[in-house]
């Protein structure tokens, strides 16, 4: 089979990919290169002179306890967001997979939150859980809980995790639903005849058959929690209180743009870039090999 | 060990569609019952109702003296072999067979004995550790069988288990299933659309059409005395020749006396024709122009057309176009295409039906 397209002119293929290449070059490679260069430079406090310092920025970063705290925090956030949004999405998908009256409407409504931009998600949750504005906050206080995520770091972290996980539920739901529908009905029927009750059927047949989907979503969710939660954190907590919700991405922003330490910020973004590359690599290997049960 | 009795079983879907319109069947202990019919006749639905995978809208399903209408599939003590085998893709062959036993809390040692015994019978012993995707179609089919037999259930249910196999394997497996069923002596209900499979496997044959039972009985008895024109054309390949009794030629030959006068449709099986110029007493002779010949070695099928004054007989599946006749003759000797021949069948080989084809008339 001839898979390669044949062009009359040698220039045409290049012309066709040029717009895409231009976008990638201008918006990815160029800033990435800038960041890499910047990470080797040190500016003085007034931004008047710049000197080349080799790996000093990195060295300083790794000697800074706050950076390690941010790493641990980010991993904790990612794990919490991935686990909570995956399990909730799976629960919803299993329920939506049953033949229901109005099932299509139910499914559409569940997919909707994915269309909401992260900062809007942040605002939405603020309306519900802001200590003085929040609708739910009132009930929480009425129930005797001292709810104030603006002062309490753990509560702020909970809030961010909640909002970020909520947003990702739709996406996970969609994949889980597709995964569930790909399981032949007769396999589930065979399990029912084989004497497996619904819970046992889920854990011994459905769950293992969904494991490729779960793994794929786990990687996607971790990447999401690492990077795409910026909008939510920025609108909800701005990394505070203290540094309770400052993840690696948010630290890049606050050190660089707010703190003015461009060299350190650039070094952090280079490290983040390496993490993305590793995660994407794992995912690509996985998708290519099509690992199945 | 159990008999299965269906009493006026009905299935109506929420939209109002009646898939099963009152079926009565009685399958004795250890018998092999085959449900046969064209696609959409409700045979699979009926089987799934026995399995408990479809709800029963009316009537009773009785397995071993217990009405199971409200009983979960797991508690009916049945095992089912699906058309697509429905193996658990993430489990090894061994675990596929052991799954149903583990769910019932059987000891691992006993499970091992049973699975290994089933594997030996089905010649699966060397591939117990393999996953279903590493097996061929026939091997998967045998695993599905194994999963059913290790359970030692009261009833086996088969939903077109051979239709995904190639022709050669299908015949081999057909024989295997029959031998296995005889040996285990387990009551079985088997669904198929293949009339040959139905004829060869069944102790009791149930011919279904449009959600109703057309005829129940011993396969050979059904072949020899089909109750309706539907059964006549569905059972037997090539199908029975059906023709209107209205043309004068046939009417005079049948005679106006007795019950033959009531008949509207005449049926003659292809193998009951003889090429001859004589007309047997009380029999029927027809003039035919040969249009096509099919030689299959041991026998030859002659396709001929009668005069075009024939009225079309009510259309049923597998039926020939009006005016066309198939004759089956032994050996490879055949008349030439275009040749005019005369064929005849004796009185005993004639099947007479009422004009709507719903009733057999014994002449």
From TrEMBL, chain A:
Keywords: Cell inner membrane, Cell membrane, Membrane, Transmembrane, Transmembrane helix, Transport. Signal peptide: none annotated. The chain crosses the membrane at residues 12-32, 75-96, 108-128, 156-180, 201-227, 266-287. This is sn-glycerol-3-phosphate transport system permease protein UgpA. The complex is composed of two ATP-binding proteins (UgpC), two transmembrane proteins (UgpA and UgpE) and a solute-binding protein (UgpB). The keyword Cell membrane applies. It is found in: Cell inner membrane; Cell membrane.
TrEMBL record, chain B:
The keyword Cell division does not apply. PANTHER family: MALTODEXTRIN IMPORT ATP-BINDING PROTEIN MSMX, SN-GLYCEROL-3-PHOSPHATE IMPORT ATP-BINDING PROTEIN UGPC. NCBIfam families: PRK11650.1. The keyword Translocase applies. SUPFAM superfamilies: MOP-like, P-loop containing nucleoside triphosphate hydrolases. It holds the Pfam family ABC_tran. It comes from the Bacteria. SMART domains: AAA. Residues 4-235 form the ABC transporter domain. Belongs to the ABC transporter superfamily. Involved in beta-(1-->2)glucan export. Transmembrane domains (TMD) form a pore in the inner membrane and the ATP-binding domain (NBD) is responsible for energy generation. One of its GO terms (molecular function) is ATP binding. This is Sn-glycerol-3-phosphate import ATP-binding protein UgpC. Keywords: ATP-binding, Cell inner membrane, Cell membrane, Membrane, Nucleotide-binding, Sugar transport, Translocase, Transport.
């Amino acid at each position: 089979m001839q898979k390669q397209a044949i062009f009359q002119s040698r220039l045409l293929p290049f012309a066709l990919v040029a717009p895409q290449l231009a976008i990638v070059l201008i918006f990815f490679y160029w800033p990435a290169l800038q960041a890499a260069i910047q990470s080797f430079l040190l500016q003085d406090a007034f931004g008047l002179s710049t000197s080349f310092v080799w790996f000093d920025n990195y060295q300083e970063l790794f000697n800074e306890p706050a950076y390690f705290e941010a790493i641990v925090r980010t991993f904790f956030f990612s794990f919490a967001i991935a686990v909570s949004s995956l399990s909730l999405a799976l629960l919803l998908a299993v329920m939506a997979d049953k033949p229901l009256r109005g099932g299509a409407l139910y499914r559409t409504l569940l997919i909707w939150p994915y269309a909401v931009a992260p900062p809007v998600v942040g605002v939405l949750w603020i309306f519900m859980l802001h200590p003085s504005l929040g609708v739910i906050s009132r009930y929480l206080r009425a129930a005797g809980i001292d709810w104030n995520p603006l002062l309490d770091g753990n509560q702020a972290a909970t809030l961010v995790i909640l909002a970020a996980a909520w947003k990702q539920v739709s996406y996970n739901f969609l994949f889980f639903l597709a995964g569930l529908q790909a399981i032949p009905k007769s396999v589930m029927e065979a399990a029912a005849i084989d004497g497996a009750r619904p819970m046992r059927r889920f854990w011994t047949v459905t769950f293992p058959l969904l494991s490729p989907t779960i793994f794929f979503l786990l990687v996607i969710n971790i990447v999401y929690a690492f990077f795409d939660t910026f909008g939510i954190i920025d609108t909800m907590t701005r990394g505070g209180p203290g540094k309770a919700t400052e993840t690696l991405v948010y630290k890049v922003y606050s050190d660089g743009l707010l703190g003015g330490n461009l060299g350190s910020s650039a070094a952090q973004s280079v490290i983040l870039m390496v993490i993305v590359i590793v995660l994407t690599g794992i995912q690509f290997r996985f998708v290519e090999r099509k690992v199945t049960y | 060990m159990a008999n299965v009795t269906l009493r006026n079983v009905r299935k109506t879907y929420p939209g109002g569609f009646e898939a099963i319109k009152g079926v009565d069947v009685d399958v004795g202990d250890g018998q092999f019952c085959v449900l046969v019919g064209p696609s959409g006749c409700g045979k699979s639905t009926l089987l799934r109702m026995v399995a408990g995978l479809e709800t029963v809208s009316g009537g009773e399903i009785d397995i071993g003296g217990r009405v199971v209408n409200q009983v979960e599939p797991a508690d009916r003590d049945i095992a089912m072999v699906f058309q697509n085998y429905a193996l658990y893709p993430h489990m090894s062959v061994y675990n596929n067979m052991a799954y149903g036993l583990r769910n019932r809390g059987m000891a691992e040692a006993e499970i091992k004995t049973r699975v290994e015994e089933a594997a030996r019978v089905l010649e699966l012993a060397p591939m117990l550790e393999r996953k279903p995707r590493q097996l061929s179609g026939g091997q998967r089919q045998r695993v599905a069988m194994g999963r059913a037999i290790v359970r030692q259930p009261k009833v086996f249910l088969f939903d077109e288990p051979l239709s995904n196999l190639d022709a050669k394997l299908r015949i081999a497996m057909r024989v295997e299933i029959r031998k296995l069923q005889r040996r285990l002596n387990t009551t079985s209900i088997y669904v198929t659309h293949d009339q040959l499979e139905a004829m060869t496997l069944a102790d009791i044959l149930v011919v279904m059409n449009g959600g109703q039972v057309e005829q129940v009985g011993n396969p050979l008895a059904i072949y020899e005395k089909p109750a309706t024109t539907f059964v006549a054309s569905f059972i037997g390949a090539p199908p029975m020749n059906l023709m209107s009794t209205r043309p004068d030629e046939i009417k005079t030959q049948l005679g106006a006396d007795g019950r033959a006068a009531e008949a509207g449709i005449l049926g003659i099986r292809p193998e009951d024709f003889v090429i001859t110029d004589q007309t047997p007493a009380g029999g029927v002779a027809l003039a035919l122009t040969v249009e096509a010949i099919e030689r299959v070695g041991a026998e030859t099928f002659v396709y001929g057309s009668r005069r075009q004054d024939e009225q079309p007989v009510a259309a049923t599946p597998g039926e020939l176009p009006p005016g066309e006749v198939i004759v089956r003759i032994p050996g490879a000797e055949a008349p030439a295409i275009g040749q005019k021949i005369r064929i005849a069948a004796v009185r005993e080989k004639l099947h007479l039906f009422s004009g709507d084809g719903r009733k057999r008339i014994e002449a």
